[in-house]
Design brief:
This is ABC-type glycine betaine transport system substrate-binding domain-containing protein. Helix content is 48%, strand content 19%. By secondary structure, the chain is an alpha/beta fold. It folds into two domains: 145 residues, D-Maltodextrin-Binding Protein, domain 2 (3-Layer(aba) Sandwich), CATH 3.40.190; 100 residues, D-Maltodextrin-Binding Protein, domain 2 (3-Layer(aba) Sandwich). The protein has a three-stranded antiparallel β-sheet, with helices on both faces. It has a three-stranded antiparallel β-sheet with strand order 8-5-9, with helices on both faces. Strands 1-2 form a two-stranded parallel sheet. Helix 2 crosses helix 13.
Length: 308
């Protein structure tokens, strides 16, 4: 009887060892596949594509969110595109998110076109005005004065308003609504790029020449030069926009932690201004973003709240 019990005990012990070995193998397999309960828990889809337009504010914010997402285990590809591609990419799922959307006014046309296939997570920065801007030394205060060529502004600027990228929401709004409603038939909105616009503005100010540009806040230009918005008595540019976050359908399921970070991402004009100024002074955008994140952990902890 003792021999029989001994054999049963030995067999039971062997069976337990086999089970434990199998469990260990499963855990090892889970770790290799990224399904373990370590720091990468629930990352889901690890590779993220985030498109943005090369505006000063967008360059700053996108590099900051890239740093935060990558610190949590994601691989982020920032893609510099035009406004239309930014919307269409997220809408058709070829991109995952954008944090550079100006609503309710500036990007209204793009929003109406693509909103059925987008998930709106709300503002990440509130109170972002835009309009036509001039140096403060210019003796002009309102958009309506351009129609009357007050102080010969038209002749002195060759009837050009210096714009940014063609297709940008501000460009469409200026050309299709602002200029017709103010009777600026003699004027031309000259498309260029955000960088070229800023360079032209700087050259004009250095020579104290007149210039009219399409500009917005937050932008480092307001920290560098004395500028003013031309009054918009018809309020066609509208009240200040908010800068918003949009993601593709299904991202919450596919990359839950990334979705939560993007949903909780929010900061102020003063904060984004710190990053923009550093970039404008020559700092690499990635380095400026890393430095800001390192020095502003109270913000980052809010954006990553509830995430391991």
């Amino acid at each position: 009887m003792q021999k029989k019990l001994k054999r049963i005990g030995t067999a039971f012990l062997i069976m337990c060892l086999v089970v434990l070995s199998a469990c260990g193998s499963d855990e090892s397999s889970n770790e290799k596949s990224g399904n373990s309960d370590n720091g990468n828990n629930n990352l889901g889809q690890k590779e993220l594509k985030i498109p943005y337009v090369a505006w000063a504010s967008a360059i700053a914010s996108n590099h900051v969110i890239e740093v935060v997402l990558e610190q949590k285990g994601y691989d982020v590809e920032l893609m510099q595109v035009n406004s239309g591609a930014m919307y269409s990419g997220v809408a058709d799922g070829s991109a995952d998110a954008t944090i550079s959307v100006w609503l309710p006014h500036t990007d209204a046309a793009y929003w109406e076109e693509y909103k059925e296939n987008l998930v709106h997570l709300g503002p990440n920065l509130k109170g972002a005005p835009l309009g036509l801007v001039v140096p403060k030394y210019m003796k002009i205060d309102s958009i309506k004065d351009l129609a009357g060529n007050k102080h010969s502004i038209g002749d002195k600027t060759e009837w050009n308003i210096t714009g940014i990228e063609p297709g940008a929401g501000q460009m469409k709004l200026t050309e299709e609504k602002v200029m017709p409603k103010y009777g600026l038939d003699d004027w031309k909105l000259q498309a260029s790029s955000s960088g070229a616009m800023a360079a032209s503005l700087g050259d004009a100010i250095a020579n104290k020449e007149p210039i009219i540009v399409t500009l917005w806040s937050p932008h480092w230009a307001f920290s560098k030069w004395d500028l003013k918005y031309l009054k918009d008595p018809k309020n066609i540019f509208g009240d200040p926009d908010n800068i918003n976050t949009l993601v593709r359908e299904g991202l919450k399921k596919d990359a839950p932690k990334a979705y939560k970070i993007l949903d909780q991402f929010s900061w102020t004009k003063e904060d984004i201004g710190e990053v923009m100024v550093k970039i404008n002074r020559g700092m690499d955008p990635a380095d400026a973003a890393k430095e800001w994140v390192k020095n502003n952990q109270e913000f980052v902890s809010e954006w990553t709240k509830g995430i391991n």
